Amino acid sequence: MIRFSRAVRPLALLAPLAFLAAPLPAQDIAQERPASLQGEDETPWLYEGSNVPVDREWKFGELPNGLRYAVRENGVPPQQVSIRIRVDAGSLHERDEERGFAHLLEHLLFRESKYLAAGQAIPTWQRLGATFGSDTNAVTSPTSTVYKLDLPAADDAKLEESFRLLSGMIREPVINAANVAAEVPIVLAEKRESGGAARRVADARRETLFAGQRLAVRSPIGTEETLTGATAQALSAFHRRWYRPEETVIVIAGDAEAERFARLIEQYFGDWQGEGAGGEDPDFGDPVAPDEAMGDPPVGETRVIVEPDLPRNYTYAIMRPWRPVEDTIVYNEGLLMDALAQALINRRLEARARGGGSYLYAQVQQDDVSRSSDATFVSFAPLSGDWATALADVRGVIADALASPPTEEEIEREVAEFDVAFKALVDESEVAPGARLADNLVEAVDIRETTASPQTVLDVFRGMRERITPEALLARTQALFEGDVLRSVYVTPTIGEADNAAIRVALMKPVTADNSARLAASDISFDDLPPIGEPGLVAASGPLGLFEIEQIELANGIRAQLWPNDAEPGRVSVKVRFGSGYRGFAPEDAAYAQLGEIALVSSGVGELGQEELDRIATGRKLGFDFAIEDAVFEFAAQTRGQDLEDQLYLFAAKLGMPRWDVNPFIRAKAAASLAYESYSTSPGGLLNRDLDFLLRDRDPRFATPDPSALETTTPEGFRAVWEPLLRQGPVEVIIYGEFDRDEAVAALQKTFGALPPREPIPAAAEARLPGFPQGGDTTVLEHRGDDNQAAAVIAWPSGGGVDDITESRQLEILTQLFSNRLLEEMRERAGASYAPQVVAEWPVDIQTGGTITAFAQLKPEDVPTFFAAAESIAADLAANPPSADELNRVTEPLRQLIRRASTGNQFWMFQLAGATYDPRRVLAIRSLLADYSQTTPEAMQALARRYLTSRPGYRVAVIPQGQELARGGAAQPSVTPSGR
């Protein structure tokens, strides 16, 4: 086992590589302690009124002007600093005429401020190594606006500059008529792109469930009327009212001393003073039942929403007023009891659905929503138009939970699950990413509660075990379903299926408790399961050729990579690659691919069906993710060293003795059929459904099966297709993390080593490689969403395989250059699209199939403008090499992205997948960082000529049903139908 000290562990994985950056020099911190930093003998501002143990990793402070902060040292990933600036102003703080202002102001802060010229925020952060949209971003919610920066390679100069820029953005944005005129179209584009059926349902659900409260009519995106009517004067007034030090909290977690962060906060925000009178928090309101409401709790507002292209969904909520709490240990014990109660009900609801119930899924969830309501939500999806039976079935399961206490066996099961999850957080706390820690503390501020260390959470949970009794859980369950008013929303594709009165009456009907979903208490042990076969022998072992990774070949031909390391304490990552992937499906069997992604794992292994798989995982950390790639299938899981053998057993048993339960297939088929029509409700949905199919030259294997194709599938056909696929092709098991090497080898011998030799992949499957359509004409798809929504795609083929892996990485630089220019043209200049982008794909397991794809959502009349802009940018990249600054804005964020990602096992697992069969993948690692971050303008120009202008791009336009494709711009495409 490799052992590193905590200080250097996150860097250890990169140490053998020549491109490892030298660690930052130690900072001279022989300075006075920041005056605003609270001492160990003081109660931090976040913990006032609480007896929850203070998480001493955080240091808290408050400036004389009222600004509060929390800072901590955190080296994950190394050299990164995560900064969050939270302003206590969201859409609920807006006046009627200001709806959307909090979000619009967020945009304006990025457009121009004291130290950032107009339009320079994105390129400036890129030059500092931060990727726009992921490393630099902001979020406006009903209760706050949070500005986020994850700054890589954060040396003194970068930190100083970042704080200077952020202080200018928050304190002194440039709010003038020109900037407002530039940003309003971008916000309207964002609003348009999130519109359609899903937005209508979300708005209607919010209006109904929160009737009478501000939340009902205040979406953060605002209204078209208030946005188009926004003026610089009105927005400046909103900024003065809410962007004030007393309304601001700064949270920082990063690879430097906490005192250093505190000094920077004092330096750049200490002299900040608000102008004029500050805002007064409005009354968010309480949920109140109408006078005529009846029942217990009284049934209030109900609503039936008819959306022809959306699947059925029913939500009802028991609403209670939200109030600030005393965040004590007792209060948190109550929250944990509530979580256990919900887990018990949800497990029963799932069991009822699995057993052939009237609904596809159902879930109970308590939530404190936007400091407006404390609510218990019940949501489910009826399988048919008989929503009343589904409602009665769901309520029957809940009624049983309200009438009778759970069994000790049920409680033990949920307690074991919670304990494993909380213990895992403790084990992994040393490598918790700073960004996640900062986000968690910001969330605590938002809900007006404290934050606790993982050890405190585990201690509190274990300390309350004796009080987790059937009677106590029954009482907490009953409280979850008590409230001031019950409201409901039913979404259906069919007119006349229900009305508001019918929904109301159904909710007031007496309920018969249904105890059939209570789970049996029989225990299942891995020790009692049949062996997969005779344990196999290790035929060969040796170094993989990188780090201390060992490669092993078992006697049956199965190969493995083993890398014991403690870079991620308590965690073991496992991946199993096998078989043929999409190549294995004949065109006539294509529908079974998607069904397999949903149902293959849940159809069981050996003697274990769905319920048994859940039960046997109790008290363990096991996973079972499944994915289909171009040329390989993959199982994946996060587990622990003590559970590794059991995890390997489950994976190997799926290959060696699969089970074929019928119900998971039936459920997957119903889910796929119900979801199909919903894809047509927006341009983005239609592209999610059809783009892979179109870019692979209409290869049926990549089509989303429609209801008619699904109707022809059967459980027998499912097994006939998948059973041979599980037996075919090579297998590679990859195990990275904190585990014992010898124990892992023994477990491999007993599991994968016990499988019979693998069957070869048929020659017909080997030959099935994806194609690419001819460019020239435009394929037109028609969606059934809003008339102002459209999307456009233009794509070019690239390549695949390991031989040209360096070129694929250089293509990533080219596509980022392309993406920056497209963003500048379509968003910043034209205001036509919120987030246009260009992406590159290059499959490594096959020699073809890669693409370069540019995409944007926009108005229908702007589709030709997009095609013209994309083709013009492509032509310019081929004709003229980019500038050095333009290249640096791409290569520096990519360099930092690679360095940060390479501190985790998942990164290396992805890079080295397949390396036991293809040693070239090991060699390709040597040039990894250089390939992504070092190039020349001339190399980019040559790649653009080869891939972007050597043949016409393939164009797809998605426009509203009944409209014609607009003409104009440089592109004058002829139109062809979608052919689906």
Short overview:
Helix content is 39%, strand content 17%. The protein has 980 residues and is an alpha+beta fold.
Structure in words:
InterPro entries: Metalloenz_LuxS/M16, Pept_M16_N, Peptidase_M16, Peptidase_M16_C. This is Peptidase, M16 family protein. Belongs to the peptidase M16 family. One of its GO terms (molecular function) is metallopeptidase activity. The chain is an alpha+beta fold and about 1000 residues long. It folds into four domains: about 30-270, 2-Layer Sandwich (Cytochrome Bc1 Complex, Chain A, domain 1), CATH 3.30.830; about 295-430 and about 445-510, Metalloenzyme, LuxS/M16 peptidase-like (Cytochrome Bc1 Complex, Chain A, domain 1), CATH 3.30.830.10; about 525-765, Metalloenzyme, LuxS/M16 peptidase-like (Cytochrome Bc1 Complex, Chain A, domain 1, 2-Layer Sandwich); about 780-880 and about 935-975, Cytochrome Bc1 Complex, Chain A, domain 1. Helix content is about 40%, strand content about 15%. It has 31 helices and 25 strands. The strands form four sheets. The chain has a seven-stranded mixed β-sheet with strand order 13-14-15-19-16-18-17, sandwiched between helices. Strands 1-2-6-3-5-4 form a six-stranded mixed β-sheet, with helices on both faces. Strand 13 (about 540-545) and strand 14 (about 550-555) form a beta hairpin. The protein is globular, with a radius of gyration of 29 Å. Residues about 1-30 and about 970-980 have low confidence and may be disordered.
